[in-house]
Amino acid sequence: MEPNRCVLVVDDDEDLRQAVSSVLSEEGYQVLEAANGAEALSRLHSGPIPDVILLDLMMPVMNGAQFRIAQTSDPSLAEVPVVVMTAAGARAEEPIEAIRPTRVLHKPVGLMPLLDTVEEVASRRRNGGTK
């Protein structure tokens, strides 16, 4: 893994957010955290721009779908790949595909699928491809 890869973890579940952040930090990632979409947008605007965003869908203040609308309408943020982490599945208010994530991980997320997905998506971002 290249040094200084950055991941933004956006989830209102503090315990889950901290657990994911801890695992990613141990793997050498710089990790930023946000408890909702509004906080995530603020972090993105203050920098650094992450290589990948791990995004929960169901959050207060600004949910994942609302965040994606704001993110994709901002040219400076639109190309940052998003991996949706959700327990919603078929219960999602909108089909997950409607927000065009790069990948979808269903909670509970296993450690290896999480690490493999983050590595793959971050590598593509670093190498010039976002999909």
Can you describe this structure?
It is a single chain. This protein is α/β, with parallel strands linked by helices and 131 residues long. It has one domain (6-126): Response regulator (Rossmann fold). It is built from 4 helices and 5 strands; from the N terminus they run βαβαβαββα. A 5-stranded parallel beta sheet has the order 2-1-3-4-5. The longest helix is centred in the C-terminal third of the chain and has 16 residues, at 111-126. The radius of gyration is 13 Å and the shape is globular. The two termini are 19 Å apart. The mean pLDDT is 89.
Overall 3D form? globular
Task: Tell me the structural class.
Answer: alpha/beta
CATH architecture: 3-Layer(aba) Sandwich
Portion in beta strands? 15-25%
Question: Segments where pLDDT lies below 50 for 5+ residues?
Answer: none
Quick overview of this protein structure:
This protein has 131 residues and is of the alpha/beta class. The chain has 4 helices and 5 strands.
Tell me the layout of helices and strands.
Layout: E1 6-10, H1 14-26, E2 30-34, H2 37-46, E3 52-55, H3 64-72, E4 82-86, E5 103-106, H4 111-126
Parallel strand pairs: 1-2, 1-3, 3-4, 4-5
Helix pairs in contact: 2-3
Give me some keywords for this one.
37% helix, 5-stranded parallel beta sheet, alpha/beta, 131 residues, 5 strands, globular, Rossmann fold, single chain
